[in-house]
Every structure is written in C-alpha cells, then in structure tokens.
Amino acid sequence: MVFAKYLLPVLAATQVAFAAKCGDTKISSQSDADGIASCSTVKGDITVSSDFSGELSLASIEKVEGDLTVNNVTQMTSFTADSISEITGTFKLASLTTLSNLNFAKLSSVGSLEFSVLPALESLSFDTGITKAGDVYIADTKLGSLDGITLDTVGAFDIENNRYLKTVNVNNLKNATGDITFAANYDSLQIELPNLGTGKNLTCRNISSISVPSLKTLSGTLGFYGTDFKTFIAPNLTSTGDLVFMNNKQLSNISMAALTKVNGGFQISRNDKLQEIDLPKLQKVTGAIDFSGTFNTVEFGSLEEVAGGFNLQSTDGKFNCDTFDKMRGDVIRGTYKCVAKEDNPTTSSGKSGTSSSSSGSSSSSTSSGAAVANGASVGAAGVAAFFYAIAQLV
Ligand SMILES: *[C@@H]1O[C@H](CO)[C@@H](O)[C@H](O)[C@H]1NC(C)=O
Ligand SMILES: *[C@@H]1O[C@H](CO)[C@@H](O)[C@H](O)[C@H]1NC(C)=O
Ligand SMILES: *[C@@H]1O[C@H](CO)[C@@H](O)[C@H](O)[C@H]1NC(C)=O
Ligand SMILES: *[C@@H]1O[C@H](CO)[C@@H](O)[C@H](O)[C@H]1NC(C)=O
Ligand SMILES: *[C@@H]1O[C@H](CO)[C@@H](O)[C@H](O)[C@H]1NC(C)=O
Ligand SMILES: *[C@@H]1O[C@H](CO)[C@@H](O)[C@H](O)[C@H]1NC(C)=O
C-alpha cells in the first residue's frame, strides 16, 4: 500500500521529466546534450548557454520543432549534429569567436538562418545542403564560399561583410520571395544565380561579377553600387522596379536587351568608364530617367512613356540630344534636360555624375527626391560586429 501510494507520483514525475527533455532545452555541457539524444524530435527550443566550452555534439536528434540558438558562446570550437535534417524555427549562430567546425551533415531545411560574427568559420560542413530556407542572413564570417547553402527557395537572402567570401553560386534558386542583398564582402566576390527568374530587390555592393542569365522580372529595386564588373548583361530581364547603377568604376557596357518596363526611377551615375547604354526595347519608365556621366551611346529604341523627369548629361559630346528633344511633352512628361557635352555632369538633384568632376559633393551621391529612393548604406548591421573580420585583415 505504501508502495503504490508513493510509486505512482514518482512514476508520473519521471514521465514529466522525460517528456520535458524533448522540449525546451538549455545546454551548458556535453552531458546536457546527451540527455536529449534519445529524442528523435525536440519540440521546443535548444539553446546553448554562453558558458559552454569546447566541442558540442548533438547526436540522434532528427528534427527540432523550434529554434536552435547559440549566441555569445566564445569558447565553443566545434558544433556537430549528425542527424538533424530540419529546424522549423531559426537556426542562429552569433558571436562564436572560436567556432571553426560546423558539421550538420543531414540538414536540408530551416525556418530561417542567421549566422553572424563567426570569425573562425572558414567553411560549412553541410553535406546534404540546405535546400529550403525562409530568410537567410550571413554576416561577418570567414567563409570563402557558401557551399552547403544550395537553396531551391529562399525569402530574404542577405550576405554582408564576409571578407573572405570569393564565390556565391546558388544554382537551384529560381524564385526569391524576399530581397537579395550582397554588401561589403570580399571585393572580388563573384556571384552566380544561373536560374534566378524572379525576385523582389536585388542589391549588390562591392562585388566583382554577377551572372543572372535567367532573370526575368523583379518587383523591387535592381541596384549596383561600387562594383568592379565591366559589363552588365541581363538578356532576359523584362521588368524591374527602380533601377540603379552608381559608382561602378569599371562598368563600360550596360546591356538589357529585353527590358521593356521600369516600374520606378532609372538612375545611372558616376560610372566613369561607361560608354554604352543599350536599351532597345525599353518602352515605359514610371518614374524619372536620370543618367549622368561619361557615356557616348544611349539607345532607346522603343521609348513610349517616361512619367517622371528626364535628365541626360554626359562629358562625351558624341550623342545627339535631338532625338530626346523631340520626345518632350509627348513621351517625356516631366522636367527635361539633355546636355550632350557637359564637363561637370550632374544628377537631377545636382550631385556630381562623375567621380572626377569638381561639381557636386565628392561623397557618393544620393538623389533624394530624384529618380530613385537610394538604397540604405552598407551594412547597417553594426560597425562593432565587423571588428573581428577587420582585426583579422590587419
Ligand atoms: C557574453 O558572455 C559572457 C560570459 O561568457 C558575458 O560576460 C557577456 O556579458 C556576454 N555578452 C553578451 C553581449 O551577452
Ligand atoms: C514566387 O514565389 C511566390 C511565393 O511562393 C509566388 O507567389 C510567386 O508566384 C512565385 N513566382 C514565380 C514566377 O514562380
Ligand atoms: C530567356 O528567355 C527565353 C524566352 O523566354 C527562354 O527560352 C530562355 O531559356 C531564357 N534563357 C535563360 C538562360 O533562362
Ligand atoms: C527594396 O527596395 C525598396 C525600393 O524599391 C526599398 O524601399 C526597400 O527598402 C528595399 N528593401 C531593402 C531590404 O533594401
Ligand atoms: C563598397 O562600395 C561603396 C560604394 O557603394 C564604397 O563607397 C565602399 O568604399 C566600398 N567598400 C569596400 C569595402 O570596397
Ligand atoms: C555591350 O554588350 C553587348 C551584349 O554583350 C554587346 O552586344 C555589345 O557589343 C557590347 N558593346 C560594347 C561597346 O562592348
């Protein structure tokens, strides 16, 4: 009798404790991790506490229905999970200054991924590869490539301040449902998005090449700032939101043979080697056209409507404004200015259109209220966070 009376509650308590072990879990040591090794699914969040030190292995767990968070665990050197294939919440690794091995051999799906300040992490050992992700944010790592991130679908894709990142090839990505941003990575970063067909914003700063042969439509901004490529070719692109080429020092040729519509403003400025702007099919720009710089050829074979203003100023003097003068009123509805030979060409807001000319400010021009609402500055993610990466460069 006494037995039964005490045994039952003890059993119940054990069961509760067992069940809780497959729920929210805080890991301070490898034995805490071993305590959930019998759970094939963890229904809750797994958090590694900042006093953890050394190598962590999460064995046997196949699915995490929650977040996996490792934040400010500066003594963690290695993190392995041999069986996890899915994390439904956020997979967050932040401020892990000595983490050099990250091995998730089966991981293929994450709710979202946030990796930041991982200055010792040179590669991802994601053998299966992450094919499905909501938003992906990777900043301030030592990664040389994103091998292991083989996305078929993604929401926002934001890759910033990875100073060793040389190539990004997201071969299978066809449709990005959020914004794609590359900023302040290794400056000879080469980006290949061979199958990307649609997206929202695509913004690139400080890259050396981009290949988007399949890109067809963007509902948001297409913007290139401070890049190093010579030619921009988007053969299949038919429509975008705002379109911006600014401060691209090597750019000599912009070719968008199929572009018919810009749903916003179109700005080209401070691209000092630019010669040819070839837009044979462009019919409609719902904002303003604002081109200033060195170019000698502007081909608008099909222009029917520019709803905003028109500003064309070049140092070259070879093209003729007559063609555009005739478009005033009928095709070009807003304010109009065309100067074929202008030593100090300016944007419609008066900023210098070349980096060498003396007029305007010498800092990068932002044309507020002009053709385009200019994008945000590089990596708002926080200067402090970049300390590690910079420290390693020095
Ligand atoms: C990081 O963890 C250390 C202890 O390991 C703690 O002293 C420090 O306050 C933590 N920093 C942040 C930003 O949480
Ligand atoms: C891209 O994905 C979004 C969201 O799933 C969908 O609404 C849209 O139709 C897709 N676009 C294309 C071209 O597949
Ligand atoms: C470009 O568009 C054409 C016509 O829609 C299509 O046949 C071709 O496959 C596209 N090219 C690429 C590289 O996607
Ligand atoms: C996307 O572009 C729009 C302007 O077209 C801008 O307002 C928005 O902030 C951009 N989003 C990001 C993340 O840059
Ligand atoms: C990145 O490009 C911007 C122009 O958009 C330029 O001002 C900046 O110096 C570049 N940064 C690096 C690290 O190259
Ligand atoms: C610009 O690029 C297009 C597409 O590749 C090409 O047809 C054209 O000849 C190039 N123009 C110059 C001046 O390089």
Describe it:
- The chain is elongated.
- The longest helix has 20 residues, at 2-21.
- Strand 35, helix 3 and strand 36 (336-339) form a beta-alpha-beta unit.
- The strands form six sheets. The chain has a 20-stranded parallel β-sheet that branches. Strands 24-27-30-33 form a four-stranded parallel β-sheet, with no helix packed on it. A four-stranded parallel β-sheet has the order 25-28-31-34, with no helix packed on it.
- The protein is 9% helix and 36% strand.
- By secondary structure, the protein is mainly beta.
- The protein has a domain at 216-394.
- Bound molecules: 2-acetamido-2-deoxy-beta-D-glucopyranose (NAG) (6 copies).
- Residues 231, 233, 253, 255, 275-276 line the site of one 2-acetamido-2-deoxy-beta-D-glucopyranose.
Quick recap of the structure?
With 394 residues, the chain is mainly β.
Architecture blueprint of SSEs:
Elements: H1 2-21, E1 25-27, H2 30-34, E2 41-42, E3 46-48, E4 53-58, E5 63-64, E6 68-71, E7 75-81, E8 86-94, E9 101-103, E10 109-118, E11 130-133, E12 136-141, E13 149-154, E14 157-160, E15 167-169, E16 175-176, E17 180-183, E18 190-192, E19 198-199, E20 202-205, E21 209-211, E22 217-218, E23 222-225, E24 231-233, E25 239-240, E26 243-246, E27 253-255, E28 261-262, E29 266-269, E30 276-279, E31 284-285, E32 289-293, E33 297-300, E34 305-306, E35 310-314, H3 322-325, E36 336-339, H4 387-393
